[in-house]
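Bumping my old thread because nobody answered last time. Still need a sequence for this structure:
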């Protein structure tokens, strides 16, 4: 009788400045850190996970994801999450699940604090959007925001993780 060990999956440890980090254009501004995604690590089921930081008065415009389930967990700051037109507090400790095709947006209502959260989306694709519309973020680099979104942002949305008809 042969005793075989089960196949083990990948393992990855990232320090705060590691991952794939991108400055984001208007209207969000701020920055994204993609922490886990296919291409970074071998995952059995395609998903991606990262953080987003919105500066004071920053806004992630209303959008939906056609086949994706998304989880957001707010870590610091204060703001509003608007899901299907209903406002919810976005503050430390709040977790929001947004299923496919549910319209949602996020607003940092503070005038002096960043709003910071962890996001998880399955299947993946959101990380590709952030990379295509953003600018690489290097440690110690000054914040280049605000800068415009690419002219073909709607095409990028359609190719990544967004439903048609995202609002400006």
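Sorry it took so long. Here it is:
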């Amino acid at each position: 009788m042969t005793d075989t060990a089960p196949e083990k999956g990948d393992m990855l440890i990232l320090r705060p400045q590691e991952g794939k980090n991108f400055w984001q254009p208007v209207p969000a501004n701020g920055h994204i850190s993609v922490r886990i995604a296919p291409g970074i690590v071998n995952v059995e089921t395609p998903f991606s996970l990262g953080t987003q930081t919105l500066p004071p008065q920053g806004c992630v415009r209303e959008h939906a994801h056609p086949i994706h389930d998304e989880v957001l967990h707010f870590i610091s700051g204060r703001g509003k999450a608007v899901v299907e037109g209903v406002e919810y507090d976005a503050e430390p400790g709040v977790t929001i699940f947004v299923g496919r095709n549910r319209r949602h947006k996020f607003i940092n209502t503070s005038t002096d604090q960043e709003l910071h959260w962890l996001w998880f989306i399955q299947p993946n694709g959101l990380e590709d959007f952030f990379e295509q519309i953003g600018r690489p973020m290097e440690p110690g680099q000054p914040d280049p925001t605000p800068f415009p979104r690419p002219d073909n942002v709607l095409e990028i949305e359609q190719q990544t993780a967004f439903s048609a008809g995202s609002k400006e």
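The mean pLDDT is 94. Let me know if any region looks off to you.
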